Amino acid sequence: MSAIKARNTLSRHWEMLKLLPTRDPGCSALQLCHLLKDAGFEVSKRTVERDLQELSCIFPLISDESANTYLWRWMDNAAVDIPGVSIAEAISLQMVEGTMKTVLPKQLLRSIEPKFQQARSKIAALSASNPSASLIDKIAVVSPTLPMLQPQSIPAVVDSVQQALINDKQLQACYFALHDHTEKNYRLNLTY
Known about the structure:
This protein has 192 residues and is an alpha+beta fold. Helices cover 46% and strands 12% of the residues.
């Protein structure tokens, strides 16, 4: 099996595990097939059935065999914390990354940077085999207002303001108005 095919199969399995419901009634192989196709994975119903059988040997999955079609889901009380991001999550993260970098405090940004990196890696890895992964190259996020240039700022000052905002603290600030060259002092309340 080629590396690209193995990566695609693993991504499909991960996506499938994320799509499986955690409670009754469950999801049929045909429903999962359609959901996977929506996520950009071209698979047959039979492939999904084989995948479910294989995954149920490793993960706590069950199928309700009382209906005409098997309905698959996670076992009751199963710990369902699948690492990674789905294609939709990866695309969403890529689309908001630029905006988030300009508004989030650095310490919060550092905590989600691995998710941004994971999203970039997933899209790069699947771009050749999954049409949904190429969607990021076809979408641009445009602000509904006029674009504004970011002001020149001192990183230490920005960090102080962000920390004050996070901790509901006041700031003492000196301000020069555009046409008034006298310095004014203000106490800023950074609470909502």
